[in-house]
Amino acid sequence: MFEFSNLRVLCMFCFFSFFSLGSGFQDLPTLYLQGRFIIHVGPPLQHVGEANPTDDLSLILALDENGKAEGVIFEDDGDGYGFNRGEYLLTYYVAELHDSLITVKTSKTEGLRSRPERKLHVQMLLGGGAKVLLVTYCITE
């Protein structure tokens, strides 16, 4: 589970937002995210052998001046050449602001790998008012 209650968000020029991952990550540099992009984060790992497909996944997004953002996540076994045989999952995410509602959805997927059942946490960094919303979904196939 991710702790984002200490998340700091400040808006610079309404095109970049910088943020901290909270009190447990003081040794990390300040992160900047340009408007229009979605990035994903997961739990800290020492090596791919520690990864579990059912680990929670977090998306952090910053909307652009048109209220849109997009990102791509590539998932595979982390070892071997199965991706050459299509054993991967490539997911394209899009986020859009309509009125006061932000919609995050999958726009396209590629690969033969099925989507694992897991929790998806979505954080939205917004310019202007510098708001953070935390939304959690349970994803099942």
Q: How is this structure best described in words?
A:
With 141 residues, the protein is mostly beta strands. It has a single domain, classed as Immunoglobulin-like (Sandwich), CATH 2.60.40. Helices cover 0% and strands 49% of the residues. The chain is built from no helices and ten strands. It has strands at residues 8-12, 16-20, 31-34, 37-41, 57-62, 68-75, 89-98, 101-110, 118-125, 132-139. Strands 4-5-9-10 form a four-stranded mixed β-sheet, with no helix packed on it. Strands 1-2-3 form a three-stranded antiparallel β-sheet, with no helix packed on it. A three-stranded antiparallel β-sheet has the order 6-7-8, with no helix packed on it. Strand 7 and strand 8 (101-110) form a beta hairpin. The protein is globular. Mean pLDDT is 76; it is low at 1-15. Residues 60-124 form the DUF5110 domain. This is DUF5110 domain-containing protein. Keywords: Signal. InterPro entries: DUF5110, Glyco_hydro_b.
Give a brief description.
This protein is mainly β and 141 residues long. It has a single domain (8-139), classed as Immunoglobulin-like, CATH 2.60.40. The protein is built from no helices and 10 strands.
| Dominant shape | globular
The residue-averaged pLDDT reads 76
**Fraction of helical residues:** under 10%
Number of helices: 0
Just give the CATH class.
Answer: Mainly Beta
Query: Could you tell me the number of beta strands?
Result: 10
CATH architecture: Sandwich
Order of helices and strands: EEEEEEEEEE
Computed over alpha carbons, the radius of gyration is 16 Å
Strand order of the largest sheet: 4-5-9-10
> In what range is the share of β-strand residues?
over 45%
Taken together, the total number of domains comes to 1
Query: Which runs of at least 5 residues are low in confidence (pLDDT < 50)?
Result: 1-15
